[in-house]
Specification:
Layout (H helix, E strand, L loop, with lengths): L2 H17 L1 H11 L4 H18 L5 H15 L4 H16 L7 H19 L9 H16 L4 H18 L23 H17 L6
Bound molecules: adenosine-5'-diphosphate and magnesium ion (MG).
Adenosine-5'-diphosphate binds next to helix 3, helix 5, helix 6 and helix 9.
């Protein structure tokens, strides 16, 4: 996959965030402060503008731009966490013009590791990690089994969606939702929901048969 494809991934994520902005905010109103959709839409709109304004030489520069823009424009916990995800993704990918499926998977895992390091959430804490970790695992498993990138990304998308849904019965142990204790049970986590959109965007844009 080349830089144009990765750029397309970010633009599709921004489009999905905008389309689901009210839903993300509604979910955050149940167990947070009703701003996740607003935060993510503001951040990804700014990230797309930053991509419009720049001509990055490689993936590292491109995702540094996206990550820094999210850190500086997105309020809440999600800004620094998504910022870290993309900064680590870019650093792991390197300043290259083309990524293989294996490099993409390695970079996405580096992004996950960054989110875990920064937010200290474990699986089952009802956070972004509950959608991202299963997606990265499914992507790795798919590529190890020698399926096409498209099939591996489709499996990652299914895993992210299942991980998002699995947050509903969880008790929140990190972030604002954790202040609610038992009352956080029965609500879908907003951050896991936006992560599922990120993985959907990858499957849609990077998983087409022409991509390699
Ligand atoms: P805030 O909670 O500061 O208002 P947002 O509403 O934008 O920020 O984002 C909330 C989401 O951030 C949560 O649904 C959760 O998925 C994620 N989140 C919060 N804290 C953490 C953490 N420590 N680790 C991972 N994800 C987290
Ligand atoms: Mg919030």
């Amino acid at each position: 996959m080349d830089l144009a494809a990765l750029d397309g991934w970010m633009r599709e994520f921004a489009r999905l965030v905008a389309e689901n902005r009210d839903e993300l905010t509604r979910l955050d109103s149940a167990i947070g402060d009703a701003d996740h959709g607003i935060n993510m839409d503001r951040g990804m709109t700014a990230a797309v503008s930053a991509l419009d304004a720049a001509t990055p030489a490689g993936a590292a520069g491109m995702f540094k731009k996206v990550g820094m823009t999210l850190v500086s424009t997105t309020g809440g916990a999600s800004g620094p966490l998504y910022g870290t995800l993309f900064l680590r993704f870019g650093t792991a990918a390197g300043e290259v013009g083309e990524l293989t499926a294996a490099t993409f998977a390695t970079a996405l895992r580096a992004g996950l590791d960054g989110v875990v390091q920064r937010g200290k959430a474990e699986l089952g804490d009802k956070t972004m990690v509950d959608a991202l970790a299963p997606a990265v695992d499914a992507l790795d498993a798919g590529l190890a089994a020698d399926t096409s990138l498209g099939a591996a990304l489709a499996a990652a998308q299914a895993a992210a969606d299942a991980g998002r849904d699995a947050t509903i019965p969880m008790l929140a142990r990190k972030g604002r939702a954790s202040y609610l204790g038992e009352r956080s049970i029965g609500h879908q986590d907003p951050g896991a929901t936006s992560v599922a959109l990120l993985v959907t965007a990858a499957a849609t844009v990077l998983g087409t048969p022409g991509q390699r």
